[in-house]
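Researcher: I'd like a candidate sequence for this fold, 178 residues long. If you have to choose between options at a position, lean toward the conservative one.
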């Protein structure tokens, strides 16, 4: 029996009520299964981008899952919450969140990209957090939010300097001078 046949809800309230009736562990298992199925359908897990890719958006290889990366990130996140020690799911959540942000940028949805890059930064630390904040600041420039962009870029600069990444600091300087 397929899930689409077994659980077809005509109204969102009924669907949400049925979802809330599931025990948290069962919900996490359902999200884990949905994540695994979707990942298989879209060609497996895409490669991790390098730091230069994160900063420059060059060398980013599109993947079949990119249009659904936000949903994949959500499923991985919920599945990981209820399964302590699930490093793979937490890493998958971060990967797909970054890919969703990248996809939003490539689709010229800069306001959405800002929020996704900020969410990505919240899950990371060190240089990866700095890269995400840099990308959020750069996307904010495209939305016209100069004050927001400046604040994000300054936060990124602080993290780059703290981690000894002078190249990252130089990229921030370039963007702040735009």
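Model: Candidate sequence:
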């Amino acid at each position: 029996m397929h899930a689409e046949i077994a659980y077809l809800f005509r109204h969102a309230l009924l669907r949400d009520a049925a979802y809330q009736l599931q025990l948290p562990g069962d919900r996490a298992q359902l999200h884990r299964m949905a994540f695994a199925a979707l990942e298989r359908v879209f060609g497996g897990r895409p490669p991790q981008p390098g730091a230069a890719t994160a900063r420059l958006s060059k060398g980013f290889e599109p993947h079949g899952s990119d249009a659904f990366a936000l949903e994949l990130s959500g499923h991985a996140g919920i599945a990981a919450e209820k399964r302590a020690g699930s490093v793979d799911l937490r890493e998958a959540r971060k990967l797909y969140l970054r890919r969703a942000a990248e996809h939003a940028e490539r689709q010229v949805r800069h306001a959405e990209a800002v929020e996704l890059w900020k969410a990505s930064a919240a899950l990371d630390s060190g240089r990866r957090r700095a890269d995400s904040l840099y990308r959020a600041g750069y996307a904010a420039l495209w939305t016209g939010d100069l004050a927001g962009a400046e604040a994000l870029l300054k936060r990124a600069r602080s993290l780059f300097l703290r981690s000894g990444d002078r190249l990252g600091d130089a990229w921030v300087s370039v963007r702040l001078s735009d």
